[in-house]
Write the structure tokens for this entry.
Amino acid sequence: MKRQLLTILLMSVIGITYYGCSSSNSCNKDSDCPSGQKCLNQKCYSNATTPDPQIVDPNIGCSKDDECGTCKRCDDGICKPVSDCDAGLVQIDGSRDIVKSDVMEDILDIESDAGDVEDIAGDIEDADTDIEITDVDDGGDTGPADIDDVGGDISDVSDVAFCDVSASLVVTKREPVGDLPRGTSMKISGQGFDNECGTLSVYFNGDNNPAKITEVASSYIKVTVPGFAQSGDITVKSFGQEQKLTGGNVFKLLRRLLFTDFGSGSSPGNKFFALSFPNFNAYMSGKYDSDGNFPYPILLDPYNLMILVISTDSGGSGYSISAYDFATVSFIKKVTNDQAKTGISSAVLDTEKNRIYLTSLDGMLYVHEMGALTLKDSIQIGVALYGIDIDKQHNRIFLSGTYDSSLPPPAGPPQDYRGALFVIDRDTFKPVGNQVVTFGDKSSIAFDAKYHAQSNRVFVVDYIAGYLYVFNADDLNSETAPKQLGSDFGPMRIAFGKGGVNVYIIGNNSPKTPIDTTATIVGFSADTLTEISGSPFDTKLITSTSLDNSKNLVNLVYDDLDGYLIAVSDADNRIAVIIENTFSFLTNPASPDNTSTFSTSGNFGIAVEDW
């Protein structure tokens, strides 16, 4: 009923605006008319014009309008003339005209629940609406300003019934103060916030980062800082008004570095850590349970505001993905795949497809859904998989691992493996083109693969032989001559620098024999493969020792915002941060060469907020 009444009101406003019945020959008495004309029913007629034959005495009783003839209405049981009447228009309360049409017949049905059309104003008032009907007794024209006065979202009466467009929008401050991570629950104080009409929105640093509004009150709103928020203005919009938080109330992003305590075979790690970056202060408690063993890798999902830690499941079989709140690092949920035979070796988010890809040492590619974390698919690719990367432009996935083995891992040392690079379709997961290319001697392991979009090539490292291979992504049989990375150098992870200009590879220097050594980074031009100045670079992170050769895992990521290379080792509880431009350490007063972490046995999984 409220919707029908509002429709009448709006059509009335539109009708008077576009079809206003203003007549130059209206009158109240004969003297108001031009010479020789008479005033009948408030309209001037010439002597030659025959008045409407249905004109009746206004005092004659009636029960409905059509008993009174043209240009009259039945008002309180009496036929009364309608002023300024033109054919095709019906007047309501002497002030709002709407066009007659077949479509409007049902809306104008005066037998409706509203009763007499004159009661529209009262009915709408009873609906608790804030719409005000003005100038009911004024038959003058209504312009666009009158329509604007209705305000709000008029697409749904249930919304309009609660809209209040009268308050001026004011924003005063945000809480908490200081530098904050994405995902933080923020309170913005002020007034004039639209709670019901769908016009309230909050943006961080431009219109590309809308925040989720979680609560609206008369003096404040609460929002969740979006996953792609950047330092800058916070803009609040409501009912066409716009206000910004400025000065000390602008948003200041706190970036973080997260990493895992991988542990060792005899003492598996089960923690992960968070430091603010690049000042390396502990974020909140700094140390968290990973809800699993051997936590690796760790992923940041800004779309669902989750920190994802992949571990060997604490139940003893398969792996698990544990999700933690992006800002509070509180546990959200865990999913387990107890069908997996071994641990996870690498992981990547495919945000365009809403997927999480996990590679496993049992040669399987596991596909989970982002957000829900549910397992969607599992595909056997090779004997073992170690690395993965996505070519979004050509819709394919590259994976590195081993092939042609009679002894699958982890049953024994990698003596029967050959390094392999696989390419599969991103939608069907079916092999593409050459399907797979093997390289190196037996016992080779392709530990990592990275797609270089700028040159459409794939970079692959052979951990055992110490080689770098570069393949044409469209023809895996056309690799360049393998590049030796150094004597007794075991390359494990690849990272591209700013703009893909340089390629960096970290190795542990001891894939064959247990010797006391440190992790090393070598750098090359991605175009010419010429070694850059300052390479090789000693990270001073301890790797394998003569007493424990099981700790030989190293990892490397690139921070695209600041241009830092960040390296870790599972035998060292420090982090090495290297400035790309100078190929030198980022110094820290507490630890000039490396930054200590909370880990007691070393680190392996690592992720940085670099967007």
User: Anything to note?
Assistant: DSSP finds four helices and 43 strands in the chain.
